[in-house]
């Protein structure tokens, strides 16, 4: 089968994984595997699949959220922010990720987790604060909640990347 055709079901599956894991962690405030899944897609399959996984998965989650759908402006910011996690993954791919190990790999993964989290929460919190006013108290409060996600993503990226890379190298995921 053509490798480009194989990407279509992978993108759909991983977008569905973002939705399922978002649902599964919905009662854990700001802890979500979605960032890692979109990042992973970008690392292993490139910029477009990574961005599509993030965008489609987050669109599903914001539309079919158990707490109700997000407002359109917030939803657009969330979809773009999660798509950027796939783009960060593709940038990580450009740095010979397969050659990294030890502290160098850990440092890059921590940096990637920070960048993915900030690229998601900065625009989302700006739009949220702009819509619901007063701007600065709402924005600062939102960014304080984002710290939970930041710490969680740093742990998730550091812990999960190595086993996923091992599966990929064994040919189970490529």
Largest beta-sheet characterization:
none
Structural class assignment: mainly alpha
Corresponding CATH architecture: Orthogonal Bundle
Radius of gyration from the alpha-carbon trace, in angstroms: 16 Å
Estimated helix fraction: over 70%
Count of the separate structural domains: 1
The 3D shape can be described as: globular
What is the compact description of this entry?
The chain has 174 residues and is mostly helical. Helices cover 80% and strands 0% of the residues.
Can you tell me about this structure?
The protein has 174 residues and is mainly α. It has one domain (3-169): Arp2/3 complex 21 kDa subunit ARPC3 (Orthogonal Bundle), CATH 1.10.1760. The chain is 80% helix and 0% strand. The protein has 6 helices and no strands. The chain has helices at 3-24, 34-45, 47-63, 72-93, 102-132, 135-169. Helix 2 packs across helix 6 (135-169), helix 3 (47-63) runs antiparallel to helix 4 (72-93) and helix 5 runs antiparallel to helix 6. It is globular and about 50 Å long. It starts with a helix and ends in a 5-residue tail after the last helix.
List keywords for this structure.
0% strand, single chain, 6 helices, mainly alpha, 174 residues
Give the topology, please:
Elements lengths: L2 H22 L9 H12 L1 H17 L8 H22 L8 H31 L2 H35 L5
Helix pairs in contact: 1-2, 1-3, 2-3, 2-4, 2-6, 3-4, 4-5, 5-6
């Amino acid at each position: 089968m053509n490798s480009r055709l194989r990407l279509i079901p992978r993108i759909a599956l991983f977008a569905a994984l973002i939705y399922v894991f978002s649902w599964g962690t919905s009662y854990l405030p700001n802890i979500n595997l979605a960032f890692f899944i979109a990042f992973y897609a970008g690392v292993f399959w490139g910029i477009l699949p990574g961005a599509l996984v993030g965008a489609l998965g987050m669109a599903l989650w914001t539309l079919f959220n158990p707490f109700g759908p997000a407002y359109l402006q917030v939803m657009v910011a969330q979809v773009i922010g999660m798509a950027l996690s796939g783009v960060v993954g593709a940038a990580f791919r450009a740095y010979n990720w397969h050659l990294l190990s030890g502290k160098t790999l850990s440092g890059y993964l921590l940096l990637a987790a920070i960048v993915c989290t900030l690229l998601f929460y900065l625009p989302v919190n700006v739009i949220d604060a702009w819509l619901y006013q007063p701007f600065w108290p709402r924005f600062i409060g939102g960014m304080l909640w984002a710290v939970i996600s930041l710490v969680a993503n740093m742990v998730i990226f550091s812990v999960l990347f190595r086993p996923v890379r091992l599966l990929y190298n064994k040919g189970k995921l490529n």
